[in-house]
Amino acid sequence: MKCPKCKMPQDGYGGSCRACGHAGGNARRAMLWTLIPTSIIAALLLGRIAYAEITRQGSSRNIYSNAIETQDAAGRSVAFAKLMHDAGQTCTRTSKSLFRGDIGPNAAWALRCEDSGDWLVLIASNGATRIANCGPLDKAGTPCWTRL
């Protein structure tokens, strides 16, 4: 093998040239072969993340919660009234709702029903719901109307 700088013959691979002291490979070429694929992969990943954020509808990781959140106020009120009725509580109409945030795969909502008061609703990732009255939660130090 010959030295790429002075063209003197070398013994084996690796080491530096005895004639000129050249240490071997081309650092600029090695950097290009490292940076170009890394840049392409980074651009693809950032593109996928941006596309996912643009097409995502709703604030939650929970699709059932997002389906409720993307409705207008009247549709959201009807959906929450149906959830409350299915849970065995009376709620003919909601006057206020707040998406509190995600607790793992579950979405937490605070509701104010005009006829039965304030409620905390947890919507699971499989669509199942759990409800709790906000009165005891507030007394226990877990206010319903704050974001998580």
Q: Would you kindly provide a written description of the structure presented here, covering whatever features stand out?
A:
The protein has helices spanning 27-55, 63-69, 73-86, 134-139; strands spanning 94-103, 106-113, 117-123, 129-133. The chain contains 4 helices and 4 strands. The protein has a 4-stranded antiparallel β-sheet with strand order 1-2-3-4. The chain has 148 residues and is α+β, with helices and mostly antiparallel strands.
Fold topology:
Blueprint: H1 27-55, H2 63-69, H3 73-86, E1 94-103, E2 106-113, E3 117-123, E4 129-133, H4 134-139
Antiparallel strand pairs: 1-2, 2-3, 3-4
Q: In a few lines, what is going on in this structure?
A:
This protein has 148 residues and is an alpha+beta fold.
Oligomer: single chain
Largest sheet, in brief, is: 4 strands, antiparallel
What's the end-to-end separation, in Å? 66 Å
Name the strands of the widest sheet in spatial order. Answer: 1-2-3-4
Calculate Rg over CA atoms.
Answer: 31 Å
> H/E element string?
HHHEEEEH
Helix content: 25-40%
Helix and strand composition category: alpha+beta
| Poorly predicted regions | none
Number of helices: 4
Number of DSSP strands?
4
The portion of residues forming beta strands comes to 15-25%
* Average pLDDT metric: 87
- Which shape, going by the Cα principal axes? rod-shaped
